[in-house]
Design brief:
The protein is α+β, with helices and mostly antiparallel strands and 188 residues long. It is built from 7 helices and 8 strands. The longest helix has 18 residues. 27% of the residues are buried.
Length: 188
């Protein structure tokens, strides 16, 4: 007899985060290049001699960002909140995720976050990019983290909890202001 397993929303989101993390790790160019012709050189290289390039390391770190963001789903929104125990506002949620996942210190507001990193077009979004919205009749008044598949995770507003939403939802499409890709050297 086959028994079916039902997951709650939190477990489903953690499973999605794990899948995204695994996809990012195993889509690394170093895995794609390993074939039988160069396998012997990979095996004879001492572990201390093999270190990922900064770009490869950053790509693998994105999985940590996404996973940490998913871990916080369900935590309540609190204006000015900066801890899981008290809740988060949108920018403090993003700041906390990057600090916990990568020990990177980011600016404290959505507007200041919009000024760091490389500007990214909507069609070029990748997991880990910051997405910005005009939700208070002011540009860059809301921020979230893009998680892939046209979805982002954010702390929406009072009375709501951290959650994943579709960027293609009419509400968010109308208010989309842009996106940035955080570069690790800019945050040091």
């Amino acid at each position: 007899m086959v028994k079916s397993i039902k997951f709650n929303r939190f477990q489903t989101m953690n499973f999605k985060a794990l899948l995204i993390f695994l996809a990012l790790v195993f889509s690394s160019p170093s895995w794609a290049e390993a074939d039988s012709s160069n396998l012997s050189t990979l095996e004879t290289t001492a572990p201390s001699e093999v270190s990922p390039t900064p770009d490869q390391q950053w790509k693998s770190d994105i999985g940590l960002i996404i996973n940490k963001a998913y871990e916080l789903t369900g935590i309540k929104y609190k204006l000015g909140g900066s801890k899981p125990e008290t809740g988060f506002d949108c920018s403090q949620f993003v700041k906390y995720v990057f600090e916990q996942a990568l020990n990177l210190s980011l600016p404290p507001s959505a507007r200041s976050l919009s000024k760091i990193g490389e500007t990214i077009r909507f069609e070029d979004l990748q997991p880990g990019d910051l997405v910005f919205f005009n939700t208070r009749k002011s540009k860059f008044s809301h921020v979230g983290i893009y998680v892939g598949n046209n979805e982002f995770i954010h702390a929406p507003r009072t009375g709501k909890t951290i959650r994943v939403e579709s960027l293609t939802k009419n509400y968010w499409l109308k208010r989309f202001n842009g996106a940035t890709r955080v570069e690790p050297e800019e945050t040091l």
